[in-house]
Description:
Blueprint: H1 2-51, E1 55-57, H2 64-67, E2 79-88, E3 91-102, E4 112-134, H3 137-142, E5 156-160, H4 163-169, H5 172-180, E6 185-198, H6 203-219
Antiparallel strand pairs: 1-2, 2-3, 3-4, 4-5, 4-6
Amino acid sequence: MIAGGRGYVPAMEAVVVLLFAALAGAAFLAVRHGRFAAQRRHADLRGDVRSRGWGFSASGDPQLTRRWPGPPFHPGGGVARPVVSGTHRGRSFVAFEYVYEITPSPTAKTAIPHRRLVITISLPGSVPDLAVTRKNAVARVLDRPVPDVAGEHRHHRVACADPLFASTVLQPTVVEWLDAGPPWDWRFAGDTMIGYQPGRLTPERLLSGLDAFSDVLDRIPAEAWRHGSGPVAG
């Protein structure tokens, strides 16, 4: 029994060593696969972007995460890459994949990454800040029908210090399109429209977002831009 017991310990140690080796190997392969997948995604995105005559940067721009304080940008910073820039339906845009990390508790040793696709589009001029965010399914069920254009909506929440501007922007045709459109949150920050949703920057999602925001801007009446100091849209 004693000899058997002594032989059992080295055997268990060998099993533990093999287990840790297997885990380390799996982690290495996972990291390697992740890097390869990211390189492949960037290559596909670069090819699509250049075929449209747009610009592409894999290294990103650190200023993009600090240029517009507020959602979706985290106060702790983050990384914006890759970055795509160009013109779509007559409007200049910059789009990028924004990644930031949050530590769930003071004692946590691992931070949780959060990923957003962000699309920014130049506006005709500087306007009051306006934010339109989608409600989740539970909130839509509990809320009452739309009371007014500059507050609570059936599918969206609206925040704006200038109710007249919000009412001018959110015409019935705009609200109807937003209710039926794809799930994006967006806001006006000075002379820029910022749209965002969770996930990666892919050619399909980029084009879908650009079309969605262009459809919104096309429906906004020209008088809305007179609330700011910039030029009026034709």
